[in-house]
Amino acid sequence: MWYIYGINAVKIIANFRFLFNLLINLCFMGGSMALSQPSLFRTVPEKDHFHLFNKGIVDGEKVVKLLKYKKQDVSVAANVPVASVRYEQKKIPAELEERLREWATALNLVAGYFKDQDKTILWFSIPNPLLGGMSPRDMIRVGRFKKLLNFIQTALDENQR
After folding, report:
1. Is the CB of residue 143 less than 8 Å from the CB of residue 79?
2. Looking at CB atoms within 10 Å, which of 71, 94, 99, 112 has the fewest?
3. Nearest Cα to 132, choosing from 5, 36, 11, 7?
4. How far is CA 126 from CA 51, 132, 149, in A?
């Protein structure tokens, strides 16, 4: 493994490549921040690959199980007290339900790319150099979901070009 000033060279190269591509895209788009403004429909997956929704209602237990979270993890990630973490439709706090819906959407967006549930779960669980060496699962767990979602949407947009 090569290190530059004590930092893994692979991470430096991967981050440089991402930033270089972002700069090139911005230059060819007249300097506008087109990548930071989402396309109108890219926030909704084409298909519910994991069957996480039933008539628009998220199956919170299934989402948590897929991400392999404990009650404490859900509490921190959703910013709700541990005692409020419950999944019954009539008892679930609105903020927790919203977070679970967002996580389920992200799972389905990535599954739409891989077209494989196992690969999707693997992607969420292994460290990613473009995410600072964190796994997407850990990014959600520590409250960095919005950054992760932006990364996912940008990556999907880049893949379509």
Report:
1. yes
2. 94
3. 11
4. 23, 12, 16
pTM for this prediction: 0.73
Digit-coded pLDDT (tens) for 34-79: 444 456 677 788 899 999 999 989 999 999 999 999 999 999 999 9
> What is the C-alpha to C-alpha distance for residues 105 and 140, in angstroms, rounded to an integer?
13
Closest CA to 76 of 141, 125, 135, 124: 141
Instruction: Decide if 120 contacts 107 (C-beta within 8 A).
Output: yes
- Of 49, 55, 137, which Cα lies nearest the Cα of 89? 55
Q: Which amino acid is at 106?
A: A
Q: Which tokens sit at 60?
A: 């919170």
158 three-class SS: helix
Is the pLDDT at 6 greater than 80? The verdict is no
Compute the chain's Rg from CA coordinates.
Answer: 17
Place of tokens 């237990």: 61
Q: What is the DSSP string of 75-130?
A: HHHHT--GGG----TTTS-HHHHHHHHHHHHHHHHHHHHH--HHHHHHHHHS-BGG
Token pair of 157, please? 């947009």
> 21: helix, coil or strand?
helix
Copy the structure tokens of residue 139. Answer: 């990014």
Would you call 32 exposed, middle or buried from its count of C-beta atoms within 10 A (0-12, 13-18, 19+)?
exposed
